[in-house]
Write a structure and sequence with these properties.
Layout (H helix, E strand, L loop, with lengths): L2 E6 L4 E5 L4 H10 L6 E5 L5 H12 L3 E5 L2 E5 L10 H4 L7 H10 L1 E5 L12 H9 L3 E5 L2 E5 L4 E6 L5 H11 L3 E7 L5 H12 L3 E3 L5 E5 L7 E4 L4 H14 L2 E5 L7 H9 L3 E5 L2 E5 L9 E2 L8 H11 L5 E5 L10 H6 L3 E5 L2 E5 L8 E3 L3 H13 L2 E6 L2 H4 L5 H7 L3 E4 L1
Parallel strand pairs: 2-14, 3-13, 9-10, 17-18, 21-22
Antiparallel strand pairs: 1-22, 1-23, 3-5, 4-5, 6-8, 7-8, 10-12, 11-12, 14-16, 15-16, 18-20, 19-20
This protein binds uridine-diphosphate-N-acetylglucosamine.
Length: 415
């Protein structure tokens, strides 16, 4: 278990290069399995979730090579359709291999995925869509066994635009007879990136960025080369950290167009945000409360930015109200922020943040990826020393988190 020892109270000032998006590279790695081929992916973040995805591909028989931020995967040798419970437990995105395995082998045997604890995270929508494509899915002794003779196309509407279900259905539909029309699909930019990758490799998918996707089946992928888009959640986290500490950052490679919901909140809170030729920058002002901040599917305010922005607004003048509409238990960072002196009351789906003058250091434990990042942000904005345990949560999604913050003047010791 890792620990960060943080001495807070200093503005975060400097430049950080944003890495490739975790939530793009994971579905793209799963997608490489759909057809045997050699796939070269650039701008892959060096995070433990990527290592877990590579472990899964390796366990299925694939070969790979990692050089800097380039990963080359050869999925020709894949010969198994079974993923062990140990590998599935490591991350939520492991479930994306289900659609890929069905497309490739017509069968899959795996268990429920792990990942951040954010409340109930069922996979019923994934299975509903796969059944619509003709797959038979059964749960036997905690194991999920799916089989299909021939996936068939048709029109299917998701009851809710789930990101993971959209991705799984895209992958499975690549092997369907005819065309699949997926309605009420999620519109997150990472889905656009997955589609960009697949079309580069020979797929025919139309509608990226809209809620209706048309996936032409039966066009095998032929391998290819692709550069993963920048991580908008890593970007949001560093913006929130600079805002919280009264700092000023330049974020190289950041894509402001993916973050308008977050930048609008930070602007209303008093920050100056600009675009540069190669990214974006933020100069913090005295922070004032923003209310309400409601999480929503893209292009609403992202649930992944809720905890980091809450940490930033803990010291804002006035009362901010957050409404979490995506996950049922995503305020697990609140007790830790309160231990640092924040005044936050979380009731049901609402968290009421009464801005305080100062935060103070405390000893806390990261609960999940973004919640842990929020604790780091609060610790940077707090007076005195904090210890944050269980930093492996942050390693799942942030490459060189402590190092990047340190390069901007933060005092962090990794233990
Ligand atoms: C993805 C992201 C995660 C982000 C989330 C919402 C990845 C690897 N993870 O997670 O960082 O926080 O999108 O933007 O890309 N649901 C069901 N049944 C299902 C599927 C989902 O009820 O079959 C519910 C979930 O419990 C949750 C909501 O739908 O309440 C959103 O989940 P979903 O969009 O699927 O998120 P993930 O793909 O898990």
């Amino acid at each position: 278990m890792g620990t960060y020892q943080i001495y807070g109270g200093k503005p975060l000032c400097g430049e950080i290069s944003i890495h490739g998006a975790k939530n793009s590279v994971l579905p793209i790695l799963a997608a490489t399995l759909v057809s045997g081929g050699v796939y070269r992916l650039h701008n892959c973040p060096n995070i433990s979730d990527v290592a877990s995805a590579l472990d899964i591909l390796r366990s299925l028989g694939c070969r790979m090579e990692q050089r800097g931020d380039t990963i080359t995967v050869d999925t020709y040798p894949a010969g198994s359709a079974e993923i062990s419970a140990g590998l599935m437990k490591k991350m939520r995105a492991a479930i994306l291999f289900l659609g890929a395995l069905l497309a490739r082998f017509g069968q899959a045997r795996l268990s429920h995925p792990g990942g951040c604890v954010l409340g109930q995270r069922p996979i019923d929508l994934h299975l509903m869509g796969l059944r619509h494509l003709g797959a038979q899915c059964a749960e036997v002794d905690g194991e999920l066994i799916c089989r299909v003779e021939k996936l068939k196309g048709g029109t299917f509407a998701l009851p809710f635009p789930s990101v993971g279900a959209t991705e799984n259905l895209i992958l499975a539909a690549l092997a369907c007879e005819g065309e699949m029309i997926l309605c009420n699909a999620a519109r997150e930019p990472e889905i656009g990136d997955l589609i960009g990758f697949l079309n580069t490799c020979g797929a025919e998918i139309r509608g990226a960025g809209t809620s209706v996707l048309r996936i032409r089946g039966g066009r095998p992928l032929h391998g290819g080369e692709y550069t993963v888009m920048p991580d908008r959640m890593e970007t949001a986290t560093y913006l929130a950290a600079a805002a919280a500490t009264g700092g000023s950052v330049v974020l190289q490679n950041a894509l402001p167009c993916h973050l308008t919901a977050v930048t609008e909140v930070l602007r209303r809170a008093g920050c100056h945000i600009g675009e540069t030729k190669t990214g974006m920058c933020l100069q913090a002002g005295p922070l004032r409360a923003v209310s309400p901040i409601r999480t929503a599917p893209y292009d609403g305010f992202p649930t992944d930015a809720q905890a980091p922005v809450m940490a930033a607004l803990a010291k804002a003048r006035g009362v901010s109200i957050f409404e979490e509409a995506i996950f049922s238990d995503r305020f697990r960072h609140v007790p830790a922020l309160c231990a640092m002196g924040a005044k936050i009351r979380a009731v049901g789906a609402q968290a009421i943040v009464e801005g305080v003058e100062t935060l103070h250091g405390a000893h806390v434990t990261a609960t999940d990826l973004r919640g842990g990042a929020a604790m780091v942000i609060a610790a940077l904005a707090a007076e005195g020393e904090s210890r944050i345990d269980a930093t492996e949560h942050m390693e799942r999604g942030y490459e060189a988190f402590a190092e990047n913050l340190r390069a901007c003047g933060a005092q962090i010791i990794i233990q």
